[in-house]
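Structure (tokenized):
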């Protein structure tokens, strides 16, 4: 009697398994998936120097910099002014999680005692489509609804460097130099009457949501 019971159970199990395989039914299951994209609000920057008339990445005529340091100026006898031997580009990259933003700059000016070069220290915002987020990945044309600021004196109050209505991350340039007094461009040239000395100051950048 005991042996028959065991055999019967085994037979029922076999039939049940065989029946499930033959009826073509499918047993589905699911797994939940989630991810969190952190909110970002960040402004990063880097600086390059270059010879006048050269691109900030021109091989042999440019390099990395840690500050805007014009160093000793050179006398241009033809124009009768002091001129820098290089200019500087501050590259700015904002991340705002797709929210509209502005990048602004202010400057303390350049002072040596009571003298200053504030009327000669200039900033010129720019956007270059070939600037790359990473090697071989240019940023492309400026998005519709975005704009960059106009050239002017760096120490003339708060200036807009970039205005983004789209909230897209973009690389914007801010060129810093000393005016040569060229017509149509901001600033005054540094004449031979300026007091000698080391002029110093700072530039600050601010990222704000619109």
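Design, position by position:
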């Amino acid at each position: 009697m005991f042996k028959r019971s065991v055999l019967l159970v085994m037979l029922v199990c076999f039939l049940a398994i065989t029946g499930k395989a033959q009826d073509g039914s499918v047993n589905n299951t699911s797994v939940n998936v989630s991810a969190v994209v952190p909110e970002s609000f960040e402004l990063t920057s880097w600086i390059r120097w270059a010879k006048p008339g050269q691109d900030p990445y021109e091989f042999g005529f440019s390099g990395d910099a840690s500050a805007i340091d014009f160093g000793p100026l050179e006398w241009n006898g033809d124009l009768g002014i002091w001129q820098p031997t290089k200019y500087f580009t501050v590259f700015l990259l904002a991340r705002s999680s797709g929210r509209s933003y502005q990048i602004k700059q202010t400057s303390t000016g350049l002072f040596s005692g009571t003298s200053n070069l504030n009327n000669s220290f200039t900033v010129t915002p720019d956007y270059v489509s070939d600037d790359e987020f990473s090697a071989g990945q240019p940023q492309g044309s400026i998005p519709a609804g975005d704009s960059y600021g106009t050239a002017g004196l760096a120490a003339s109050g708060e200036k807009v460097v970039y205005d983004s209505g789209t909230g897209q991350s973009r690389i914007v340039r801010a060129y810093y130099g000393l005016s040569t007094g060229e017509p149509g461009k901001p600033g005054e040239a540094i004449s031979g009457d300026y007091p000698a000395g080391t002029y110093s100051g700072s530039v600050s950048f601010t990222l704000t949501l619109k």
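Reviewer-requested clarification: Residues 195 and 202 are 20 Å apart (CA to CA). Residues 42-209 form one domain.
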